[in-house]
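Please review this one.

:::
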Amino acid sequence: MQASRALPYNRAMETQFDKRFGFLVADVDRLCGTHFDELARSSLNLTRAQCRVLAYLSHYGEVNQARLASLLEVAPISAGRLLDRMEEGGWIERQLNSDDRRERQVRMMPKAEKAHDKARRVGDEIAAEALAGFSKQEGEQLIALLQRVRGNLSGIVDR
């Protein structure tokens, strides 16, 4: 395991929230999420959490319910209630795992695949609004930098 390097401490950063990495990332997430909620509720009749479920299922395929709760960063009981509502609405289907009866596998239904495409368009609209005034190259550079940050943190958190 690599020893972590101590980074120099910058006292000026204590109160300049608009220059603090974690604050900026969290605030951009909050703003994008709030805007997504507004657009998704009006155009899809789905919540952001439900759209995230569809996005994860689209990306990973069939996923067990516990893993989905972890990806959503919610307690398993909260994920269960969210998935109950989605199953009642015909968005997803849950089945017991034949190898482990305690585990429930979650998959998208055809209705959800169409909604996921619309949710992606909502996300694209928000990204375009967020990146207004950026050149194509600047937008691509920002995405590449954020991917590097995610890679750095994934190596630490997902060990």
In short: Strands lie at 63-64, 92-96, 104-108. The radius of gyration is 19 Å. The chain is about 65% helix and 10% strand.
